[in-house]
Amino acid sequence: MEIRTYRAATMHEALAMVRRDLGPDAAVLQAREVPSGRFWGRLLGSRQIEVTASLGVNVPSRFARPSQADSADVALALGSARKSSASVAHAPPAPPPQPVPVTLSKEVQGQLNSLQTLVEQLCRQARGSDQRDLPDALFRLYTDLIEADLSEELARGLVEKVRAEAPDAEMADPVLLKARVTHLIESELRVTGPIAVTPGRRRLAALVGPTGVGKTTTIAKLAAHFRLKQRCNVGLITVDTYRIAAVEQLRTYADIIDLPMHVVSTPREMREAVKRMSGLDLILLDTAGRSPKDDIKIQELRAFLAEAAADEVHLVLSGVASARMLDHTAERFAAVGTTAIIFTKLDEATSFGNLFSVVRSSRLPLSYLTNGQNVPDDIEIARVDRAARLILGLEPACRNERIHDPR
Predict the structure, then answer these.
(1) How far apart are CA 98 and CA 110, in angstroms?
(2) What angle do CA 330, 332, 337 make, to 5 degrees?
(3) To pair with 46 at 20 to 30 A between CA atoms, which of 107, 277, 302, 397?
């Protein structure tokens, strides 16, 4: 049985090294924080993540793509991994390299000694504020969150909350720990429900976002649902005159569903188009994709929305984008008055920790989730429990259903 030990700066990097060398069927036997083996690392008190893994232990893979597993399946995998890791000794770490002697002047030596004293004081303060190492079950919960693509900071924060709130009797129960972290994620998510349409009272909902996230297709899905299922009087307005064939695409949908549609290119034309549709129940506004780095285009979009007097502004984001990009995009589009988030392309994503990051940082509620290109299918109203289980990898993105409105 071959056992290998890997060291890296972060848990993400360590797990990537295990995947690269041993493949997706590798089993993580142990993971811990250790002092850095480098001279300056020891001097500064830096830490590394050490992961011991093997292909010869019959443990469910830590890297397999989660399917429609419930918490009982997760408990079985975590329990087996815990028992196996207790019976296998990890390989000892390699001895650290010896520092090379350097001759320094008295002045430089004195400055270095002062710096070293200051660094040691800071390290002692940091170590004094650190909490004790995580128990085995909690650490495995932490690695589950990392594999779900949550940042290490978010994962650690959630696990520390679980440890602070859970009684000692639950600390070794993976099922109860996973349930607690699920409830914590649910408590930080908000949803809006479907677009609130009242017959006889006009409501205007605009979709904004970067290019290529699926705004036009999502508009078509919403229009088909409210026109064909809810029997509402729906109209379409588009200002996406920049993208080739964008107007023709939306006009095709409007002709099939039998909806009125206006194309506008200036804020004044927007005001006139909205006035002509004042007798409708719902107006759906499709906007051109804007780069979050283009302040001029963002302000131009803001002017269009101000003339439209939008009741709701849904920020459309792609589920395959990185957490950092999503956070940046949400921050930039806040200038146009976004009120909710629609996540698209969930069928193309491999994990959903990025969703939790942007919802948490932007404090915007979720409105809809989409998972394909089919109109009017592949869209659902966002629910807190469903979103939390997606984030944890406990449910698949694709459910092949149309919008279900409990009303």
Answers:
(1) 22
(2) 80
(3) 107
User: With contact defined as beta carbons under 8 Å apart, do 365 and 186 qualify?
Assistant: no
Q: What is the DSSP letter of 148?
A: T
Question: How are beta strands 203-208 and 47-54 bridged, if at all?
Answer: unpaired
CA atoms of 3 and 21, how far apart (whole Å): 12
Which tokens is 95 given? 């001895």
**What is the set of domains in the chain, with CATH numbers?**
3-187 (no CATH), 203-391 (3.40.50.300)
Residue carrying the six token digits 């146009």: 336
d(CA 205, CA 9): 45
Tell me: the pLDDT tens digits for 336-359?
999 999 999 999 988 898 899 999
How far is residue 259's CA from residue 376's CA, in Å, rounded to a whole number?
15
The model's pLDDT over 57-109, given as tens digits with 9 standing for 90+, comes to 655 444 444 444 444 444 444 344 344 444 434 445 556 555 555 555 666 66
Q: How far apart are CA 198 and CA 136, in angstroms?
A: 53
Chain centroid, CA 380 distance in Å: 18
The structure tokens listed for 177 are 């720990």
Cα-to-chain-centroid distance, residue 159? 17
Separation CA 161–CA 255 (nearest Å): 53
Q: Which of 180, 185, 154 is closest to 167 using CA atoms?
A: 180
Q: What pTM value is reported for the model?
A: 0.68
Give all strands of the β-sheet with 379-381 in edge-to-edge order: 261-263, 234-238, 282-286, 203-208, 312-318, 340-344, 366-370, 379-381
How far is it, in rounded angstroms, from Cα 236 to Cα 344?
20
Sorted by sequence, the CB contacts under 8 Å of residue 205 that are 6+ apart come out as 195, 222, 282, 283, 284, 285, 310, 311, 312, 313, 314
